[in-house]
Design a protein that fits this description.
By secondary structure, this protein is of the alpha/beta class. It has helices spanning 31-45, 56-64, 68-75, 92-96, 101-123, 141-147, 190-209, 232-235, 254-273, 284-287, 297-306, 316-323, 349-366, 382-390, 431-440; strands spanning 16-24, 51-54, 78-81, 129-130, 152-154, 167-169, 172-175, 213-219, 277-279, 346-348, 372-375, 378-381, 397-399, 445-446.
Length: 450
């Protein structure tokens, strides 16, 4: 297989980078194979390198159908990962919902590891990034992705986000919930395709004025050749369909296909003419500053007492680690939420120091934040411990403070709306996943261009 070199690029303060990616997933309709190849070849002629996020079953079907021509064409672009089976139940959010952080990470790796291995075998590269099928997201995936050597989460969803730009979360670089900085030219409507240019211009101007940023566009190769999604006709509302009973989606007419390609490539030419810098999922980590930045401890301490929040380029976890004397490093957030039981308004100095040292020991051992900290037979929640630690004035007793977790506002609070997708079971909601997302939001912080 062809192994591509990554093109190194640096960013200046006013740079805007443009990500173009394709969820390459339809393993039922063979015409989608040709669509992926055409997109890859014509983009290459334009000098544009895109990211093709490929489903494990799709990669295997290309191999089984003998489509080495498609594999070669895609391999000259960037290759990402888009789940093992995409819509065959159970989908990621469904199987992750009843699991905690650690067990869920193990299960994600068990179910998704084969797809990553097959993409590595077929395309000759470790996927540069991952993106969930539909809205089937779960924070446990971050731990598993790190173990599988996938450093970037690139998709769109409403579960978590930060100022419509990339961010660090769970030890992964996320390009997610870009909202107004996501631009798509419609493939069937000339007028709406032109409106996408206006939207792109607005995003470009806004980001340049802000000092730089990222715009992204995504499609599915199957969109260019079908009028309905392959998975909706086979796996709607969690229905299982055996391969022998797969229904192929309805195809576009030849005229409709050509119009879709024309509107798309006209839009890409317009984007390229703007002078924006194209990037791939593999380029993203090189464009960003080191996520482990030093903390201004005196300033951070004062703000932490008022609200536990992101501070500049530092996550709440970064600040807490600095208050505990750790150098800049990464640890995961807590696995559960535990309430405080300390009744007194203060903790004796010696007892507080024992609890503080215990918290340090826990972090060193597990590489994650504790859910609570013990002081004798009573405990403080992580939030209350962080606020109490920040407010410590060095006296013979340490005043107990209640921590306000301000960073949790960046996580979606709608457990049903966040997971709306035609493939999920009717009425599917996952408050458990959003609760885990809030716990891991201790690690949330902006990703800054170099």
């Amino acid at each position: 297989m062809v192994i591509l070199a990554t093109f190194w690029m640096s960013a200046s303060a006013s740079d805007v980078f443009y990500l173009l990616w394709f969820d390459t997933e339809d393993f039922i309709e063979p015409a989608a194979d040709d669509a992926a190849m055409r997109l890859a070849l014509e983009l290459e002629k334009l000098g544009v390198r895109a990211t093709f996020k490929i489903v494990g079953e799709k990669a295997r079907m290309l191999e089984q159908r003998g489509r080495t021509d498609v594999i070669r064409a895609l391999a000259r672009h960037d290759i990402g990962y888009h789940a093992e089976n995409h819509s065959i139940p159970p989908t990621p959010a469904v199987y992750l919902k009843p699991l905690g952080l650690l067990e869920g990470a193990e299960e994600f790796e068990r179910r998704e590891g084969q797809g990553v291995a097959d993409i590595r075998r077929i395309f000759g590269v470790t996927p540069s990034c991952y993106g969930q099928p539909g809205s089937s997201w779960g924070p446990q995936s971050n731990l598993a992705l790190r173990r599988m050597g996938i450093p970037v989460y690139m998709d769109e969803g409403s579960h978590i986000g930060l100022h419509d730009q990339p961010f660090w979360y769970g030890g992964i670089l996320y390009c997610f919930r870009l909202n107004r900085n996501v631009v798509r030219a419609e493939l069937d409507d000339e007028r709406q395709a032109l409106q996408a240019r206006t939207q792109f211009d607005e995003a470009l101007r806004r980001l340049r004025q802000a000092g730089g940023g990222v715009i992204q566009t995504y499609y599915h190769p199957t969109e260019f050749v079908t009028t309905e999604f392959w998975d909706a006709v086979n796996f709607s509302r969690g229905r299982f369909t055996a391969p022998s009973d797969y229904r192929r989606p309805k195809l576009r007419t030849k005229e409709s296909m050509e119009k879709a390609y024309r509107l798309f490539f006209d839009f890409i030419r317009y984007v390229k003419a703007s002078g924006v810098r194209f990037a791939t999922g593999r380029d993203l980590p090189q464009l960003m500053e080191d996520p482990n930045q030093p903390v201004d401890v005196p300033a951070a301490r004062k703000r932490f007492v008022e609200a536990i929040d992101i501070q500049g380029r530092n996550s709440a976890a970064d600040v807490l680690l600095a208050l505990l004397g750790f150098p800049p490093t990464y640890v995961d957030g807590p696995t559960i939420r535990v309430e405080s039981t300390v009744r007194s308004t203060s903790i004796p100095r010696e007892l507080f120091l024992r609890g503080k040292q215990d918290a340090i020991s826990y972090i060193e051992r597990h590489r994650r934040l504790p859910s609570h900290v013990w002081f004798g037979s009573e405990r403080l929640s992580l939030a209350d411990f962080a606020a109490t630690l920040a407010g410590d004035d060095g006296g013979p007793a340490v005043s107990v403070r209640r921590g306000k977790l301000a960073f949790e506002r960046h996580v979606n609070s709608d457990p049903e709306g966040a997971f709306q997708w035609i493939i999920h079971p009717e009425g599917f909601a996952a408050p458990e996943l959003l609760e885990l997302a809030r716990l891991q939001a201790w690690t949330l912080k902006p990703a800054k261009l170099k």
